[in-house]
Amino acid sequence: MSLSNLDSLRYFLPEGIVALTILLVLGADGISRGRRGGLNAAVAIAGMVAALAAAVTQIGMPSTFLFMGMLAFDPFGVFFRVFFLAVGVVVVLVAHPYRELSREFTGESYAMLLGVVMGMMLLATSTNLLMIYLALEMVSLPSYLLTGILRRDSKSSEAGLKYVLFGAAASGCMVYGMSLFYGMTGTLDLVELRNALAVTDVPGSALMVATAFVLAGFGFKISMVPFHMWSPDVYEGASTPVTAFLSVAPKAAGIAVLLRFCLSGLATAQDGAYRAFYGLDWPFLLAVLSAVTMTLGNLAAIRQENVKRMLAYSSIAHAGYLLMGAVLLSTEGIKAITFYLVVYGLMNLGAFLVVIAMSADGRRETFADYRGLGWRMPLLAVPMAIFMFSLVGLPPFAGFVGKVYLFKAVVARDMWWLALIGVLNSVVSLVYYARIVKTMFLDEPGESPLPLPRVPWMHVALIVALAIPTFVFGFRFGWLDRVSSYSLQILSGS
User: Fold this and answer.
1) Structure pTM?
2) Which residues contact 218 (CB under 8 A, 6 or more apart)?
C-alpha cells in the first residue's frame, strides 16, 4: 500500500524538522553575523535532537510506502534515521569549538551538514531509482563543499576537487546503470523492477553489467574497491571533524541503499531469507569486492605515517567487513551489518575525536606526534587505545562482538573462504592499530616534544562518552542486539 503525499507527511516528520532547521540555521546566521557562530550550532543541535526524538517516537508504527511509492517507512529505515541524526549531533558538538573551523564553519556550513543528514535519511528509505539518485546527490554535493571548506588550506582545496571529480564519475556510472535497468524493465520503482525481472527473460550478462554500473555509485560512498581512491587524500585534506563525519555517516548511508537496492530490487524474499535472480550472481560479485576491499585497505594502512590517512585506509577495510553481511541474503546478515555499524560508529568517531583533540590548537597528525602521549595525556591515550583495540576486534571490546556477528553469519551460510579472509585481515590490522598504542605508551616523547594541546572540555566529554560504550558493549550487548533485531524488516512489497 502506498500513501498519498498528504497522508505521508506524518511519517515524514523527522525529515521535515531537519528541513525546517536548515532554514532556521540560515536565519540564525544572519542574526549572529560576525560572531563565533554559537547560535548556529545551538539551532542545528536543537533541530537534530528534535528530529531524533520524532524518529524514536515512530518506532512501532506500521510499515508502508510513502509519497506514492517513492520512499519506504519500515524498521530498517527508522534505524538509519536515528543513526544519522545521532552522528550529526556528535559532529556539530565537535565542530563548534574546533579552532581550525572557527572562521569557516558559518551558518551555511551547518546548513550543508544538515542537508547531508537529510539526504542520508532519504537515501536509506528510497525505493525508486530516481529518488535514489536525487538523494545520493543531496548527500554528495554538500559533502564536496564541506571537504573544501578550509579556503586558506591548499590540502583542503585539493581534497574537495578530488572528491568532486571522483564523485561525478561514480554518479555518471550509476545513472547509466539505472538507465539500463529502466530500458530492460520499463520502471524505476524497485518493487516493480523486481517483479518485472522475475517474469522477463533478460540475459544475465546484461543484468550484471547494469548492476555493476549502479554499484559504482554505492561503492563510491562506502569506499569500496575500486572506487576507494579518493578516500585517503580527501580524509587527510579535509578538516578532521568533516573527515570523522564522512568516515561514518555517508558510509552507513551507502550500505543502507545498497542493501535496499539489492534485497528489494534484485532478490525475492521468503521466510526471512532472500534469493537472487537466476543468472544474476551479484552476491558473489559483492563477496569478491568485500575480500579485495578489506585486504587492500589493511595492507595500505600499514605503511602510513599520518594517523588520518591510516584511519582512512582503515575505513576502507571496514567497508569490506560490512560488505560481508550484504552477500548473505539473510536476515542474519542484515542484523550483523546494523550491529556492526553502531559499533563502528562508536569506535571510529571516537578515534577521530582523539585526532581532533590532538589538533585542537595546531595540526598533530603523524605517529611521531603521539609519542609518550600515554604518560603525558592519559585522558586521550587510554580512550584511543580502547578504540584501536576495538577496531582490531580484540576482546573484551565492542568491535570483537561486532566481528563475531559478521563472521558467524558468514559461516552459517557456508562461505568459509570469506570468513577466513576476514579473520586474516583482522590479524593484519593489528599491526597498524597496535603501532599507535605502542607509540603512545612505549615510545619516549623525544628531546623537544610538542606542547600538549589545549583540548576543549566538550571534546574530552565526547571521547569518554564514546569510549565507555565501546568497552561496555564488549560484554553487555543485549540492548544493541535488540536494536539490531528491530531493524531487520525491509519493506519490499508483495
Assistant:
1) 0.91
2) 174, 224, 254, 257, 258, 261
**Closest residue by Cα to residue 91 from 352, 418, 322:** 352
What number of residues does the chain have? Answer: 494
**What's 372-395 look like in SS3?**
CHHHHCHHHHHHHHHHHHHHHCCC
131-137 long-range contacts, CB within 8 A, separation 24+: 131/70, 131/71, 132/178, 132/257, 132/261, 133/171, 133/174, 133/175, 133/178, 133/217, 135/257, 136/171, 136/174, 136/217, 136/221, 136/257, 137/171
Q: Which amino acid is at 414?
A: D
Task: Identify the pLDDT of residue 376.
Answer: 83
Please, is 460 exposed, middle or buried when counting C-beta atoms within 10 Å of its C-beta (0-12, 13-18, 19+)?
middle
pLDDT digits (tens, 9 = 90+) for 76-91: 999 999 999 999 999 9
Q: At a CB cut-off of 8 Å and minimum separation 6, what does 336 contact? A: 324, 325, 328, 402, 405, 406, 408, 409, 484
Mean predicted confidence (pLDDT) in 151-172: 85
